[in-house]
Amino acid sequence: MKKNILLILIISLFVLVSCNNDIEKTQEISIIDNYDNLVETPKKQYLCIFKTFSNNKDIETFLNNNPIDNDFNNHDIPVSTAEIVSFYSNYINYWEAEIENSLTILQNNLENKNYQKLKDSQNNWTEYLKDNNSIFSEIHIKTAGIGSEIPVLSSFKTLSKIRDRSLELIEYCILLEGQYEFVFVS
After folding, report:
1. 8 Å CB contact between 115 and 122
2. Dihedral sign for Cα atoms in the order 170, 175, 177, 181
3. How far apart are CA 145 and CA 59, in angstroms?
4. Is residue 67 helix, strand or coil?
């Protein structure tokens, strides 16, 4: 009996000490500036580093130093909800143009059967994006209530997902053609 109580006390002490250490560490971290998965640039970087599926460091460097992210990071994010959503919408449109450009390049480089599979995949991805954002909003409303942050969070999430899909397709283009030229001009 005494051994069990002693064991419980030791485990409890260990848990409390480890929790205390975690709390102290999180209090020292700045929310945006110290994330390891963010690109280091002279200005703030808001979008995560894109990891290529090919693990090609040259392609990864090219994709993570793209002109759209550079333009995005060199602008201050507006203050009002409407301005923020509009700001994100502009960059969503830029990334959607890159998706269309990538699909055109891939259509020219793939056999009809393979391109049809890619097109089906893209259609499924588009449906996923719609469903995912709807579920995200519903969960947020149920847990945090209705507020002006929902359009901001939703548009940023859409931007991030469209950016990632665009970079995936651009990677495919690079692997097929050996190069890619961005449509976006700052």
Report:
1. no
2. positive
3. 42
4. helix
Cα–Cα nearest to 151, from 125, 127, 133, 175:
133
Q: Rounded to an integer, what distance in angstroms lies between the CA atom of residue 48 and that of residue 62?
A: 14
Q: What is the pTM of this model?
A: 0.71
Task: Round to whole Å and give the CA distance between 173 and 162.
Answer: 17
Predicted confidence band of residue 33 (pLDDT cuts 50, 70, 90): very low
77: which 2 tokens?
A: 């994010």
Query: What is the distance between the terminal CA atoms of the chain, rounded to a whole angstrom?
Result: 72
Task: Provide the percentage of residues in the chain whose pLDDT is more than 70.
Answer: 67
Q: How far apart (Å, rounded) are the C-alpha atoms in residues 133 and 128? A: 8
Name residue, tokens 């260990």: 14
Which pLDDT score, from 0 to 100, does residue 130 have? 83
Using the Cα atoms of residue 176, residue 177, residue 179 and residue 182 in order, give the sign of their dihedral. negative
CA separation, residue 70 to residues 2, 17, 146, 184 (Å): 63, 42, 33, 11
